[in-house]
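Duplicate of earlier report; TIGR02234 family membrane protein input re-posted below.
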Amino acid sequence: MEYVTAVPHPRSEAAGPARSARRSLGIALLSGALGAAVALLSTRQSWSEGTATVAGGDFPLTAKGSDVTGVPAALAIVGLAALVAVFAVRRSGRFLVSGLLALSGAGTVVAAVLGAGDSSALDEKAAAASGNTAATADALSHTAWPYVAAAGGALILLAGLLALRYGRLWPAMSGRYERDGTPRPRKAKPVDPDRPEDLWKALDRGEDPTGPDPAGT
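Output:
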């Protein structure tokens, strides 16, 4: 007679967190990298347009995202660096870097939304084009690119939140590439008794040239 037990197998219990860690890691990497790329690309596009009166005519004006504010691009770069740094640190360091990643995304969203209705960059261009410091842009209009940048910031924020939640389960950089400062042992060089210079070099290294050959020959 066979008995059915309700106790879960240890392997099935361990598979759940491991699967969640792999899934969250993939989503975080994709969303973080994509969000940074979208935010950077958006700041190079036209955020607002208008005209200035120059010599009795309308002079077209365009302000890119980088003209309006440099905060989204800067925070996108910080977020991308933090996304890479998450795998270079452990424990509390990983938690702090994950928090920086999330804050970079949130800051990108806020800066992009605030810049969506900003007309100061166009006013400066209008004043420069007309030669009148009091001139402002006319026929002002805004594009959707600031909100695209905000969407990129939201993806960076998602990566940061995933790192805060599941980062402790993610792998770290291999320690085999880290030097522990331990001096490497020197290999004894074979000494030719027929060459006096080899004998003197062995004595300088603190070796016994008359002793047995370390290679066993």
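Strands lie at 46-54, 57-64, 138-142.

Merging into the original ticket.
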